[in-house]
Specification:
The chain is α+β, with helices and mostly antiparallel strands. Helices cover about 30% and strands about 30% of the residues. It has 4 helices and 7 strands, in the order E-H-H-E-E-E-H-E-H-E-E. The longest helix is centred in the N-terminal third of the chain and has 17 residues.
C-alpha cells in the first residue's frame, strides 16, 4: 500500500464499476487486497492466507460473471490506487430478479475505518436501485466490524446460523444474514 495514504478520511476516494474488458487492469491490485484482507482474518472463503496464485484464481473466477452481466465489480481508488472492492450479484432466477446480493466487501487493512467500505456500499446500493432491485441481501461473520457497518447502512438482521463457516484459522463461526429494502 502506498505510504502517502494518510490517516484522514479518503475524501477523494472514487468508485469505478469495472467492465469485463477492464478486468485485467485491476486484477493485480485486487489479488493484493484479497491476500492482505485474508491475512488479517477476513472470512471470504479461504482457510489460511491465499498465495498469489490462489488470489488470482479467485478473481478470474469472478471475471466470467462480469461478461454475462450477472455480477458487478466495484473498486474504490484513492490517489489512483485501488484500496477496496465489493461485488453486486444480480444473477437470480425469475422469481428473484427484484433482489441483489452484496458479496466480498474488501478494504485494504492499511485504509480501513476511513469511509471506503461505506462509499462502496452506497454505490452498490445505487446500482441495484437503478437496475430495478428492491431488496439487498448479504451475509457476514457474526460480530465482525462489517456487521455493525451494515447495520449503520440500514441493513437488518434476518437471522444467525451457528457454525456456518470456518474462519481462516479453521474455527467454526456463526454467520449473520442481513437484508435491506431499497
Amino acid at each position: 500500500m502506498d505510504p502517502s495514504i494518510t490517516p484522514q478520511r479518503l475524501t477523494t476516494c472514487t468508485v469505478e464499476d469495472v467492465r469485463a474488458d477492464q478486468f485485467d487492469q485491476v486484477v493485480g491490485p485486487l489479488a493484493e487486497i484479497l491476500m492482505a484482507c485474508v491475512g488479517q482474518g477476513a472470512s471470504v472463503g479461504f482457510l489460511g492466507k491465499p498465495d498469489a496464485e490462489d488470489a488470482f484464481s479467485f478473481w478470474y473466477g469472478v471475471s466470467g460473471s462480469l461478461v454475462s452481466g450477472g455480477r458487478r465489480l466495484l473498486v474504490a481508488r484513492f490517489a489512483g490506487q485501488i484500496v477496496g472492492t465489493v461485488q453486486l450479484v444480480l444473477a437470480a432466477p425469475a422469481n428473484g430478479r427484484h433482489r441483489a446480493e452484496i458479496s466480498k466487501l474488501l478494504v485494504h487493512p492499511d485504509v480501513r475505518r476511513k469511509g471506503v467500505a461505506r462509499i462502496l456500499m452506497q454505490r452498490a446500493e445505487a446500482i441495484a436501485r437503478a437496475d430495478g432491485r428492491s431488496l439487498l441481501v448479504l451475509d457476514t461473520r457474526t460480530g465482525d466490524a462489517a456487521e455493525s457497518l451494515y447495520g449503520s447502512l440500514g441493513f437488518e438482521l434476518a437471522g444467525i446460523i451457528p457454525a456456518y463457516a470456518r474462519s481462516t484459522a479453521g474455527k467454526l463461526t456463526d454467520t449473520s444474514f442481513m437484508y435491506k429494502r431499497i
